[in-house]
Design a protein that fits this description.
With 227 residues, this protein is of the alpha+beta class. Helix 7 crosses helix 8. The chain folds into two domains: 4-159, no CATH class; 173-225. The longest helix has 19 residues, at 207-225. The chain has an eight-stranded antiparallel β-sheet, sandwiched between helices. Mean pLDDT is 88; it is low at 163-167. Helices cover 36% and strands 33% of the residues. It contains eight helices and eight strands. A hairpin with a 4-residue loop joins strand 4 and strand 5 (90-98).
Length: 227
């Protein structure tokens, strides 16, 4: 079946009630926007997000000093703040978070047939969710929302065209995920901003496995790109 990008509006309190967003989040923040999905497995997700604060503005140093407290408050397995914007009102961070039971059950059932994507913005009163799915999986999602008595609204449904061939088309999904994460966090910067240990921690893989994904992925890209 062809994939489609579907965008729907749902009440924000639904995501709080189901544990997708911690209830404490909106005591300190206005919204969270998903910028990139690195991993969305049944048990956990790794996301690049933009958070808009409602409380006092914070510098990067202030946020990182509160790192342990923020991990407990928002039930995060790990997070890295990459940059602070808008004078401390907004920050971009990478989150590794355990999925709540309801979301884990959905992903166990639907598997890779539903993949979150942009634009996805969650606010206290309303949320805009986007995901890639075939028609059968989309119907299952809509049936689930109806069963929960959720008043959802379809904003858009667009067919996804198969992209043209690129040098990285031979990459496995895991290789692309690890390479993208390494690039975002500055693994390839000089000097490097993160090492294999942090990449391993965020992905839940061993250092050796992360190294293998990086080397094999780069080998594929270079093999196709160099004459």
């Amino acid at each position: 079946m062809p994939l489609r990008r579907l965008t729907i509006d749902v009440p924000g309190d639904l995501l709080v009630r189901e544990g997708v967003v911690p209830a404490a989040f909106f005591s300190h923040n206005e919204s969270v926007e998903i910028l990139h999905v690195y991993s969305f497995q049944p048990r956990e997700r790794v996301l690049l997000v933009r958070v808009v604060r409602s409380g006092p503005r914070r510098t990067l140093e202030q946020i990182m000093r509160s790192r342990a407290r923020l991990r407990r408050r928002y039930r995060l397995r790990d997070f890295e703040v990459l940059r602070v914007e808008d004078g401390g009102r907004t920050y971009v961070a990478l989150l590794r978070q355990r999925n709540p039971g309801a979301l884990e059950a959905i992903l166990e059932d639907l598997g890779a047939r539903v993949t979150p994507t942009t634009p996805t913005v969650i606010r206290k009163d309303s949320a805009t969710l986007s995901f890639l799915a075939d028609d059968g999986a989309a119907r299952q999602v809509f049936t689930l929302l109806d069963g929960l008595g959720v008043g959802w609204r379809l904003r858009g449904r667009r067919a996804i065209r198969h992209p043209a061939a690129h040098a990285d088309e031979g990459l496995t999904g895991r290789q692309r995920e690890v390479l993208s994460l390494a690039w975002t966090l500055g693994y390839f910067d000089i000097p490097a901003k993160v090492g294999l240990g942090k990449l391993a921690e965020l992905t839940g893989l061993s250092r050796n496995t992360v190294s293998q994904h990086l080397r094999r992925g780069l080998r594929r890209i270079l093999r196709e790109s160099l004459p």
